[in-house]
Amino acid sequence: MLYSVSRHFDSKIETIINETSSILKVPESDLHTSFNEYNKDKSDIPYIKLIVENSTFTKEDFERSFNKKYRQRYQVIEDFWKKTLEEKLLPLKYEVSIYEKE
After folding, report:
1. CB 20 within 8 A of CB 84
2. Rg from Cα positions in the chain
3. Could you tell me the pLDDT band of residue 96, with boundaries at 50, 70 and 90?
4. Does the predicted TM-score (pTM) go above 0.85?
C-alpha cells in the first residue's frame, strides 16, 4: 500500500515536471536536476541560468505565452519555476518523504 501511495505522488511529480517543461520549453532533465537540489530556505533556484539558457522560446512565442517582453524572460521563467516548485512540487515531495519513512 505504501509503495503505491509513494508511486502515486512520484507520478504526479513527473506529470507536473513534464507539463512545466512543455510550458517553459526546457528539457525535463534540467527541471529534475533543479527540483532535486532545490532548498526552500535558500533564495537561489539551482540551475536557473541553465534552465533559461536552454529554453527554446522564440521572442514571439515567449511574448505571446507570457504577455511579457522577451528581455524579461529570465525573471519570468524563474518566477514561474519557483512558484511551481513551492506550490506544487514541494508539497508532493513532502508527501513522498512521509510515506518513505513509514
Report:
1. yes
2. 15
3. confident
4. yes
